[in-house]
Each structure stands twice: as structure tokens, then as C-alpha cells.
Amino acid sequence: MRRSGETASPQPSASNVANAAEWSALRRLLPYLWQYKWRVLAALLFMVGAKLANVGVPLLLKQLVDVLGVRPGDASALLVVPAGLLLAYGGLRFSTSLFTELRDLVFAKATQGAARSIALATFRHLHALSLRFHLERQTGGMTRDIERGVRSTESLVSYSLYSILPTLIEMLLVLGILAFTFDWGFAAITAVALLTYITFTVKLTEWRTQFRRAANVQDSAAHTKAVDALLNYETVKYFNNEDFEARRYDENLQELRRVRLKSQRSLSLLNGGQQLIIATALVAMLWRATQGVVAGEMTLGDFVMVNAFMIQLYIPLNFLGTLYREIKQSLADLSRMFVLMDQAREVADAPGAVPLQLQGQPELRFDDVQFAYDPARPILQCVSFTVPAGRTVAVVGASGAGKSTLARLLYRFYDVQAGRVTIAGQDIRQVTQDSVRRAIGIVPQDTVLFNDTVAYNIAYGRPGATQAEVEAAARAARIHDFIQSTPQGYATKVGERGLKLSGGEKQRVAIARTLLKNPPILIFDEATSALDSHTERAIQQELASAAQGKTTLVIAHRLSTVVDAHEILVMDAGRIVERGTHAALLAQGGRYAQMWALQNTGDNAE
């Protein structure tokens, strides 16, 4: 509770927060462009040259009109002076276009280079984020944010360097010429009109931005729902929920339509107000010029020049509202992408981390490890065990016992809250994540494949592997014959997430790419769970052969797959409750023996 006399600190408004984020995004964009500083400076020079040429056109037009007012019969004036002025007029027109094209040509590399650098930096950062972030993300909305953010880089440069800045330069030049050539009245009318026009445009566009932001939110939400429904196409079909998904999608589309209609109405108000200001200023300027011509204080050429200046100024100003809105929106889109880049890395390499050093087969050790995804729900509690170098240790237990979490910790998808995990005596938190993951190969329980060829998905285990090496790995995983039987062989597309393949075929592709990687440490996380009994026995032989001489951690639910392990750990509620060989655990008559009896009973019943 506040004491008497104290006042609450003012909370920043949503618009102020948004403006601060947009300016921050602009500051962060500049270093990407400044990598091409010489191109930036050259483009600015060409831009100034284009504007000087453009401003010179009305001046020459005035001279040309005044010269045409000579007496009839004066042949020299009609043939020499107008011809020279006409050539100069054409030269200035051409120079304007030439400098503009040179500006675009010189700066294109900077624009595209900055967009590429930002997109690549975002892509790398997203891959560096923790598994927790990727489990909670909304893929459709996130990809939309990245797409708009990259596109906004080009838009910002285009609108600011190619439109706003040149218009401001031209405004200053015209004001200076009007004030110097005539009197301050012309410059004052122009300045007041410009200030009124810009203020009106900025204020109304700021008000309109809320509709654009709301439209973006609805657009991202609709895109997220559409992508999610399409990715889960089979589930939608299983439950006859096509209409339900269509209604969910349409809810966002209806809201998007409503917001866009508001945006259009406000745009009409903006355009109408702009035209009123322009028309009023133009009438005032031409009335003053007309009075000057009638009074003999100005020539007809002066009248034409004033009119030409006004037209040159107000044509680009017609688009000021659109340009300002697009710049604001581009800044908002860019700031949303930078929000992704600002996502903290939950798991990061320690300062001074060095690569994992391995000599021969490594030993794995979990020392008194404690871990929880949520502090209120512990997953691993004081877990300690060792996988000796070149040996196989299996972990079994009921679902939710914490078995797969061991593999995630070993891969450093998460860091332990207490205790430590070591490879070859080195705490994996003190070495680089890249070197740890290079030393490990995994066949996961849920295999997800890229929407590419079978060959690509197998070769993903070791990019750059030869076709012969890919085929050898496929033979070891007992999938070569199946691949060869398909019409396109190794060039067969597997579809989105590998959905064109059966569960067993996907699992064998995963086994093949892990065998191709050939790391010193292997993790089999329910590696044969999707296989039939006959194929499972064949694959088990290949996995046993692949594990020879390698340090192997097997996570299994089906106990028949781990009977040959050097040691079996039985987990329950995040603790190791039993350990020993298959025969020793059966002899104990404990939890493992009960699980074995239940599984054998189930198998016999089948």
C-alpha cells in the first residue's frame, strides 16, 4: 500500500511501448546495412543527384516558357536559345531517371545482403533455442512472423531511402528556391501546407495502425490454425472434424475481414483529408502567382514553375500516408522477428567451453542427477548409474518413469538442476553442445522425416556420404530391399513428416541414418517399437552388431529387446529401483520379474 503523498509511477501506454520496440528494431537493423557502408554512401549521393536534377526541371521549364515570349521574327532566339534549353531540359529528365536507377543498382546488394543476414541469424538462433521453446511454439504464427520480418527489411529500405528521404530533400530545396526567387509568402504557404499535411497524415496513420496490428494478429492466428489442421490431416479425418476445423479457421477469417474493413474506411478518410489539404494549398499558391503575373511582378514562366513545383511535391506526398503506414508496419514486423531473436537460450555453452575430448570408447555417467520440467513435478530424483565404455546398459520401466528424459539430458536439450552428466569424465555442461551431439547417435521412439527423398533422409545422418554408404546403411537397417522395390528407389519422396511410409519403414530409415553417422555413443529409445515381431528380431541383430564396441544406452518398454544388455536399470517414478542382468533381475523376483511375467502373458495370449 502506498504511503500518503506517494504517487504511482505512470505506466507506459501500449503505443509508447510499440514505438520503443519499433525504434529499437530500426537501430538493430542499421548494423546489417552498415556492412555495406560504401554502397550506402554511394546510393545516398545518387539519390541527392536525382533530386537536384528533378528540382532543376521546373527551373529550366520557366526559362523555356519565358524565352518563348520573344518578339515574332527573332530567329536567333527561337532557334538557338530554346534548342539549348530543350536539350538541357531533356538532359535533366534523363539524369533524374539515371541517378535513380544507379541508386537502386548500387543499393540492391546492401538490401538483399541485409535481408539474407537477418534471415540466417534468425534461423540459426531458432535452432539454438531449447527444446522447451520448440515444444511450446506455434509453427504457423512463428513462420509468418519470420516471413514478414525478412520482407520488412526490404520494405523499410525501399520506403525510407527511395521515397521518404528523397521527398524531404526535395521539400527543402523547393522551399529554399521559392523563398530566394520570390518572397517568403510562397515558402510560408508551402511550409504550412506541408506541415499540416504531414501532421494530419502521421496522426491519422498512427490511429489506423491499431487496425493493421489487429489484422496481423488475426492473420497469424488463422495461419496457425490452418497449418496445424493440415499437419494433423489424418487426425481430422479420423474424427470427422473437417467442419469443426473449417469453423475455427473461419472465426479468424471473419475477424480479419472485420478489422480490414475498418482499416479501409479509415484509409478513405485519410485520402480524402490529404486531397483537401493539397487542393487548398495549390489554389492559394496559384492565386498568389496569378496575382503576381497580373501585377507584372512575375512572368508566365514563374507561374508555370510554381505550378510544376507544387505538382512535383504533392505527387509523392499523395503516398505519404501509405508510405508512413508501411514503414510503421515494417518496423512492427521487424520488431516481432527480433523478439524471436531475443528469446533467451535456456541451454547455452559455458564461457570458454571446449570441444569434447574422446580417446577410444567413452564412458557415460549420471551422478546423483535431479531434474524437473516443472519445479512442481520432479521427473528424475537422485539418479546415478554408469554405462561403461563399449558396454550396453538398458533402462526399462513404466511410461512416465523418466526413461526418455535421460536421453534428452544427455543431448543437453535441458540441463540438470542438480548432479551432473559426464562423458569420458567430462561434465557435458563444460564442453560445447556441438561436440557432445556429434558424439551421439539416436534412434528415437517417434521418427519424423523431412519431406524429401529416402536417400536424403538416410544421408542426413552424415551429410556428404556417398550413395554406396547410404545403401550400406539401408542394408544394415533391413530397408534396402523395400526401397529398391519402389518405382523411384532411393529418390522416393517420403511426404510431410514421412507420412507416406509406414511406422516400421520410418523407424528403419531412422536406424539407417544413425548407423550411417557411426558415432561412439548410441541411444536406442524404443528403437524397434514400430516393428512387427519378425522384423524386430532381424533389426535387433543388426542393432546388436552396430552396438558392438560402442557405448550404448537402450531405453525400452518391451523387455525382450534388452535381455542381452550388460546391465538393466528398472526405473519407477524417477528413481532406479532395481539393477542387474536379465537373469539376476528375474532371480530377485521384484519389479522386473513382474514386468517380464506380464509381457510374456500378453505375448502368449496373442
Automatic annotation (TrEMBL):
GO annotations of cellular component type: plasma membrane
Pfam families to which the protein is assigned, alphabetical: ABC_membrane, ABC_tran
Membrane spanning residue stretches: 38-61, 73-94, 156-178, 184-204, 267-287, 299-320
Localisation: Cell membrane
GO biological process, one term: intracellular iron ion homeostasis
GO function term, MF aspect, one: ATP hydrolysis activity
Domain ABC transporter stretches: 364-598
Predominant location category: membrane
Keyword annotations from UniProtKB, A to Z: ATP-binding, Cell membrane, Membrane, Nucleotide-binding, Transmembrane, Transmembrane helix, Transport
Top-level taxonomic group: Bacteria
UniProt protein name: ABC transporter ATP-binding protein/permease
Organism: Comamonas aquatica
CDD domains with a match to the protein in the record: ABC_6TM_ATM1_ABCB7 (cd18582), ABCC_ATM1_transporter (cd03253)
All copies of domain ABC transmembrane type-1, residue ranges: 41-329
Membrane topology summary: Multi-pass membrane protein
